[in-house]
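Collaborator request, handled under Task 6.
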Amino acid sequence: MLWKPFFLSLIVCCGLQASAPAQDKKPQDADEVIRVDTELVDIPVVVTDKAGKALLNLKKKNFNVYEDGKLQQVSDFAATSAPFEVALLLDTSGSTRSDIELIRRSAQGFIDSLRPGDKVSLIAFRSEAEVGRQVARPEILSGLTDNRAQLKSALDKVGTSNGTPYYDALLQVTEKVFADAPAEQFRGRRALVALTDAVDSSSSSDFDEAKEDLEKAGVICYFIKVDTRPFFEENLLGDCESAIRFSQSQIRRYYRRFASSSKIEKVSSFCQLGDFERLAISKNLYGLADTEMASLAKASGGRVFPVDELNQARVAFKSVAEEIGTKYSLGYYSSNEKRDGTYRKIRVELRELPPGSLVRAREGYTAPPH
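Structure tokens returned to the collaborator:
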């Protein structure tokens, strides 16, 4: 999110494990044990009818899975009743500081609407002093738990920050929240849900790094996209001392991504930017954030839910919770046993279902390297 005194966005991250090490096969006799040098590939899927209503009570026989065009044998299947693990990240920086109670209530409503057995981890942003200045960092307020009282207590601790380490927060999801392999009942059932504008201002990492880790971990990504651009640009122009401003990392990102070959003189100070260039930077950074959200959601089988105002977040959270409750999980051992680090495309095909039925699923994964 853009560099503002305090902008609040919420990321709920509900994760999905990409793959887990295969278990040894049972011995065929007392002297021989066959080991499989491959990994189980997990695919969470949602199936809807032509009207968009989730189809429940499906069986393994209703699905075919293809990897790079080759039919695979589905070895594992979890119905919609299986529990999920969800990483919920609250980005509390910027213009909506006064709406923090609304954010807390929306997040609490989301947690309450999940099922018994679903686990949630809560992440937020905080500011801390570093060499005489305030630095924003992601903070895990609660690890994965189904203890609702513990999660409510963690929500009460959510505050605000003076920057948006959004990419760093995405890495926290894979490196800390989902660092350990999931228990059997949660395998293939991890998700990220984010209430955010996704415009990073202060991360030490970048989007490509975060995306690679999320895809490897197989985390389903949901975003509740808050439209903060009108407010930001309304306060962006004019006197540089009183205007909302970009961070230096945002200015560098703009020149690197969108103006690397431009003849316009590159500057590092916000006050050196004219109004026209400020608007150009804002337009491109918001467009980049939208592209990044859409990319993560599509590749993982998740969705983006746009909201114009934070008071619409509660309804969006309800939609996310409902979808989590209608996810199936498929698992297969790839017929391609090469450990070559290549990207493999996944396609899920429906069988014996009414015409017009649709499936949304993970689009692929990266094979383990040598």
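The cover message to the collaborator said: "The helical segments are 100-113, 148-156, 166-177, 207-217, 229-234, 248-258, 275-300, 313-324. Residues 12 and 193 are 3 Å apart (CA to CA). Please let us know whether this matches your experimental observations."
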